[in-house]
């Protein structure tokens, strides 16, 4: 009888240990699964954002996004400042639009992914602001109003920008801060940075650009790490004698 009781006690103990081990394994699997699904937490701004004009832009992290608030007022000369402004210059060949830059008609705020999603489908650009340049002004695509840029090209200033309609914005290579070089031009709505016609990693014009003008390589802001980014494509646009800033499609959605 005593031997039977001992045997029963041993069986209960082994069964209890098996349950405990099974329970522990299940908990570990659950925790591991949770860790695998955690989103990457971005804790600091990309180094390229520190090249933006701080007088015109306020840039900060908001969770997994970057918010860019701008006055839209660039830090370079143009006829569109209007006479009397310190940055006004005469441009007799420019068919200026009626609008002149002021502090109350150029403000723009955009929100972009801190880490662009390059796994989705490409998305066409649309009329209006498609990005913010390092100067603080907007970047537009190759359309103007109801038609192609050709119809309004005569109103573009020396650096490929104008007002009309809406905010001051660039359609072409913004020569005020990127003129046939590898300088940072700005950030687009998909969170991908845009650079000039040349690439710092190649030391010349890149030859491996996709349809959007993008490729993956190091830049002056990635500390040796490769990163997908856009370039202004080195092809003269129509009769403008210059180069489109960006026509799309976006790759970062």
Based on the model shown, name its key terms:
alpha+beta, 8-stranded mixed sheet, 3-stranded antiparallel sheet, 13 strands, globular, disordered N terminus
Arithmetic mean of pLDDT: 85
Largest sheet: 8 strands, mixed
Q: For the terminal residues, how far apart are their CA atoms?
A: 75 Å
Judged by helices, strands and strand pairing, the structural class is alpha+beta
Percent of residues in helices:
10-25%
The number of E-state strands comes to: 13
Number of domains: 2
What share of residues are in beta strands?
Answer: 15-25%
Q: Specify the number of helices.
A: 1
Order of strands, widest sheet: 8-9-5-4-10-11-13-12
Radius of gyration: 27 Å
* Low-pLDDT stretches: 1-38
Order of helices and strands: HEEEEEEEEEEEEE
Shape assignment:
globular
Question: Can you walk through the features of this model?
Answer:
The structure is a single chain. By secondary structure, the protein is α+β, with helices and mostly antiparallel strands. It has two domains: 1-38; 47-231, no CATH class. The protein has one helix at 2-37; strands at residues 57-62, 65-70, 108-113, 131-133, 138-139, 143-144, 147-148, 161-163, 168-170, 184-188, 193-195, 214-217, 227-231. The termini are far apart. Mean pLDDT is 85; it is low at 1-38.
Write the layout of secondary structure elements.
Elements: H1 2-37, E1 57-62, E2 65-70, E3 108-113, E4 131-133, E5 138-139, E6 143-144, E7 147-148, E8 161-163, E9 168-170, E10 184-188, E11 193-195, E12 214-217, E13 227-231
Parallel strand pairs: 5-9, 11-13
Antiparallel strand pairs: 1-2, 2-3, 4-5, 4-10, 6-7, 8-9, 10-11, 12-13
